[in-house]
Amino acid sequence: MARNLVRFDPLAEFSALTRDLFDGGIRAAKAVMPTTDVYTEDDDKAFVVEAHLPNFDESDVSVDVDRGALVIQAQRHEKEEDSKKKYVMRESTTSFYRSILLPEQADEAGIKAVFDKGVLKVTVPLTVSVAPRRIPIGEGGSAAESA
């Protein structure tokens, strides 16, 4: 009875999956995804969110505050009609959604947004938080009396 010995590689499937994802899946999708930068400026006096939204117009973008989160949405709808081609109409929709939890010190009433050359910059002013105050612990009256 003839037996074929095959060397078992437990990571072969993982290697194939990784190769498939990085050769066309994730890398291609990442190139199309808009980026979002979140940082503080002015010595932590402002919380800033920059969303890079190329090919979107200002009218395509909305910024909302919902239950302590900054919500950025963008949607572009294109419609093309060409009677010379066999299709009647070609449509495409591109959308972007990002929700970012605001810090407790956020002054929601003072939020400002500016859209310039495909970059949305939302500035959230931060209020000065009160520093924690240490309470001194004195000698206990009831514990001292019982001794």
TrEMBL record:
It holds the Pfam family HSP20. Residues 29-140 form the SHSP domain. Gene3D superfamilies: 2.60.40.790. Belongs to the small heat shock protein (HSP20) family. PANTHER family: HEAT-SHOCK PROTEIN 20 FAMILY MEMBER. This is HSP20 family protein. It comes from Microbacterium immunditiarum.
